[in-house]
Write a structure and sequence with these properties.
The protein is an alpha/beta fold and 233 residues long. The protein contains six helices and 13 strands. Helices cover 30% and strands 25% of the residues.
Length: 233
């Protein structure tokens, strides 16, 4: 299956941009009448065929549309501190998207090791991941956000903070209810500070554990994503 991403599909014709057109015609060697599939990142999956194999402006005729393709009955939002080694954060975005995540917020915390990101590059990783895993929804990537700001504005009822500090914590897998929206906070390598944990509790976040092992930031994010996904299958 040849899969393309086009965010704005209007009418019964799809036109690829020059880069994608060149890839389709010159690299994949697609020609007129070859079948293709297009996703728009908003839930639309389009079955189409090549109508004009132009390497600068490849045109496709839409044959059939599947709306809300792969739509889930819940929303998974993970707010996570970007890692000092950006490759590890990019790995998390790629794999979490493949498994199934709806929203990601990079957060700034007291112990954050990275305080800047390249949203354009991260967006490309998300696009590549939905194409790889045949998902029609592109996860929302929010701007780098201070932790206290995120906690104050969230409206998700099931909100959790995963940390390694002392205190009574329940396992995240035992707190997930099928079909309900979830927000999980994942801290930096130095973890959330005690002050941040206390603030989260004031904002209604429940303290949770992800298991007995001490996990890297990106691994913790993946573990949380997987637990929520499994609980909803």
């Amino acid at each position: 299956m040849q899969l393309f991403y086009v965010p704005d599909v209007l009418g019964s014709e799809i036109i690829l941009d020059e880069a994608e057109s060149k890839h389709a015609v010159k690299v994949l060697r697609l020609s007129v009448n070859d079948p293709v599939t297009v996703i728009d990142g908003k839930g639309g999956l389009y079955h189409a065929r090549i109508s004009d194999a132009n390497p600068k402006k490849c045109r496709m005729e839409v044959l059939h549309i599947e709306k809300e393709f792969g739509k889930k009955g819940y929303w998974l939002h993970i707010a996570i501190a970007p890692t000092k080694n950006i490759d590890r954060f990019e790995w998390f975005l790629e794999k979490a998207t493949e498994i199934g995540i709806d929203e990601v917020t990079p957060i700034l915390t007291e112990h954050s090791e990275r305080k800047n990101i390249n949203p354009d590059r991260l967006e490309k990783i998300l696009v590549s991941a939905i194409k790889q895993s045949l998902k029609a929804y592109l996860p929302f990537l929010n701007p780098l956000t201070p932790l206290n700001e995120l906690m104050a504005k969230t409206t998700i009822k099931n909100r959790f903070i995963a940390h390694c500090g002392e205190g009574e914590k329940v396992h995240l897998k035992n707190e997930i209810k099928k079909g309900e929206d979830v927000l999980v906070l994942i801290g930096p390598e130095g973890d959330f500070s005690p002050v941040e944990v206390e603030l989260a509790k004031k904002f209604g976040f429940r303290e949770v554990s992800l298991g007995t092992s001490r996990l890297r930031t990106e691994t913790a994010g993946m573990a949380a994503c997987h637990m929520v996904t499994l609980a909803n299958e």
